[in-house]
Specification:
heterodimer, A: alpha/beta, Metallo-beta-lactamase, Chain A, seven-stranded mixed beta sheet, five-stranded mixed beta sheet, 10 helices, 37% helix, B: alpha+beta, Immunoglobulin-like, ten-stranded mixed beta sheet, three-stranded antiparallel beta sheet, 5 helices, 16% helix, globular
Chain lengths: 350, 267
């Protein structure tokens, strides 16, 4: 068991008879086998403009215009922490000429309030609709600030918010402390169906995909070519997988790629990671999911224990990503046991 | 962890020796010399090995995750092969957790297996995790690691208890050998379906596997394992056995309610 990857030095120091060699050979093989798969290019991560201030609980939200009538409020490309106020999500808004559409409301009541003020500083148009792209807490925990507006999400997302909201709140209070003051899980109130909305000059196509969660809402603004990809695309950040269906996720990335191939997509706004053009974010996410699932499958087939797999070094192309290795460890802890059970076979006499 | 422990120990002992006379030193150190500085260590040691003395040893490796993402399934690896040539080799390994409501985790006699083990436990809060290893000369050696956890793992019901499915699968065994994960060794992974209730959830008394052993057709034991409440639901345990296949192996055991576990372990 001391033959776990990444520990060869320590184990040879402690137990010279330990045999780390076959595993290393296997890892090399895995690396070579995966080298043929498309590997994504890196995406520049601009320095964080916002300077969150924990003394005043000011997120310092700074809307940045990325297209006509379209602003993003970028979160830190990091994991949750008190230093960043747990603001790691990109929210956005579109001033359509027939009202403002807000996308995602951030990790806390305070965020929602500050988001609302930041939007009011940019446009005098009223907010007509608040969309939440999936059930995860940083997509909807600012909803208390939008109590007088229609907050909307796919049906499965709303059910998930209702079922898991309290547990999310416990976790975020623990991680983020006083940044969460006064926050109560407030799920979206209205179900939104996949459809195309015509608002002012903007034609907004809402599509239901799945794989990151059971209900992933994506929004393409056909006027500007901005795709709000939600949690299906992560850029320069390890994807989170608590509600993942890996095969469905890959199929949804195919769908996004086809959308891109049609020429309709000019910029991609992922929920986590820098805004970018092209397919780099889609490819990074795909590359990661392939590597992760192959690692779990092959490790289980070799009989490795979870504790050993947790020590797998990540390939260099992923090593610089935000939330590494914490997010990898969360994914392995949740999903690897299922791969282990599959190879153990049916119970009873063998 | 290793260099960190060494540095802590060097710093600690250096400072203490410089500043305090020997008598005061013994009185003031309420951690029993624990390199992780845990005040619970002396009582844990006494609970685990009685009045015997124990040496902290880098030859006993305990590995856990830096952070326990699932406090009900915290993966631990214990490896005492570093003691193979010390005191006649390893006789037993006892695992215990300083800050769990139930602190004793398991007691392993490797017999013909290598003195190493992988398994999962529940943790109620962040804590040092210890392996007390006794060599055949009677000496105890202790290895430790620190596991961070949000906690709560001991006081919520497991999945099969929550959905009631445990009664349909109780005592079922899955087992499989894997060759050469360690060179020249044969790995056995065993999973036994059991809720492993800690007794710390209201209305659910402690209900857990107490004994497991691997027997060959002549009735000889290849290893023996005593489990306690903190071992995770449906325990999945990894052993290292000699490379040559042995026919007729059986996994035999019982829980604290007297339910028997008895399954063939195919070669």
């Amino acid at each position: 068991m001391s033959a776990a990857p990444g520990r060869s030095q320590a184990s040879s120091h402690r137990s010279p008879q330990g045999g780390g060699i076959p595993l290393k050979r296997w890892l090399l093989f895995t690396t070579l086998a995966l080298a043929g798969a498309a590997q994504a290019q890196s995406i520049p991560v601009p320095p964080m403009a916002a300077k969150p201030d924990a003394a005043t609980f000011n997120y310092d939200l700074q809307p940045r215009q990325i297209a006509e009538g379209t602003w993003v409020i970028e979160g830190a490309v990091q994991d949750f922490s008190r230093a960043n106020g747990c603001n790691i999500i990109n929210t956005a808004f579109i001033a359509t000429g027939a009202g403002v559409v807000v996308i995602n409301t951030g990790p806390s009541r305070l965020y929602g309030e500050q988001q609302r003020r930041a939007i009011e500083r940019v446009t005098r148009e009223p907010v007509v609709r608040v969309l939440e792209l999936n059930l995860h807490p940083d997509y909807f925990f600012g909803n208390q600030a939008w109590a007088d507006r229609p907050t909307q999400a796919l049906a499965g997302s709303i059910a998930g918010m209702q079922a898991e909201g309290t547990a999310y709140a416990d976790n975020l209070y623990r991680l983020c402390g006083d940044w969460m003051r006064g926050t109560e899980s407030t799920p979206a109130r209205e179900t939104v169906l996949p459809q195309t909305l015509q608002l002012g000059q903007h034609q907004l196509e809402l599509k239901r995909l799945h794989g990151h969660t059971a209900d992933d809402l994506v929004l393409l603004d056909h006027r500007t070519g901005v795709l709000f990809a939600g949690g299906l695309v992560f850029a320069e950040r390890v994807p989170t997988t608590p509600h993942a269906d890996f095969a469905a996720w890959q199929a949804s990335l195919d769908a996004l790629e086809q959308w891109h191939a049609s020429g309709a997509v000019k910029q991609v706004v992922p929920s986590h990671g820098p805004v970018h053009s092209g397919l780099a974010g889609v490819q990074q996410t795909r590359d990661w999911l392939r590597w992760l699932t192959a690692l779990m499958q092959e490790s289980a087939g070799r009989g490795l224990d979870l504790g050993e797999v947790l020590e797998t070094p990540v390939p260099e192309r992923f090593a610089r990503w935000a939330a590494q290795p914490a997010e990898l460890h969360r994914s392995l802890t949740q999903w690897y046991p299922r791969y282990e059970l599959r190879v153990l076979g049916a119970p009873g006499a063998r | 962890m290793n260099p960190f422990i060494q540095r802590r120990r060097m710093l600690g002992s250096g400072l203490m020796a410089a500043l305090l006379p020997a008598v005061l030193r013994a009185q003031d150190d309420q951690t029993g010399g624990d390199p992780l500085g845990s005040m619970q260590y002396p009582s844990l040691r006494e609970q685990t090995i009685g009045k015997a003395t124990a040496k902290f040893s880098d030859a006993v490796m305990v590995k856990g995750p830096a952070f326990a993402d699932d406090a009900m399934n915290v993966p631990l690896l214990v490896d005492a092969r570093g003691l193979d040539k010390v005191g006649g080799g390893v006789a037993r390994i006892r695992v215990a957790v300083d800050r769990n409501p139930v602190r004793q985790v398991l007691d392993f006699e490797p017999l013909r297996a290598l003195p190493m083990l992988a398994f999962r436990i529940r943790m109620e809060q962040a804590s040092p995790v210890r392996a007390f290893v006794q060599t055949k000369d009677g000496q105890w050696h202790v290895g430790s690691t620190w596991v961070q956890a949000a906690g709560g793992g001991c006081t919520v019901p497991g999945l099969t208890r929550a959905d009631g499915s445990w009664s349909k699968t109780l005592g079922q065994v899955q087992a499989r050998f894997f060759n050469n994960v360690l060179e020249g060794s044969r790995r056995l992974r065993v999973r036994v379906m059991h809720p492993m209730d800690t007794g710390l959830v209201a209305g659910i008394p402690a209900f857990y596997i107490e004994e497991l052993q691997l027997l060959d057709s002549t009735g000889q034991a290849w290893w023996k394992l005593a489990l306690h409440e903190p071992v995770s639901e449906n325990p999945l345990i990894t052993f290292e056995l000699p490379p040559q296949a042995v026919p007729g192996l059986r996994l035999i055991g019982r829980d604290n309610n007297g339910n028997r576990i008895d399954a063939e372990v195919g070669a």
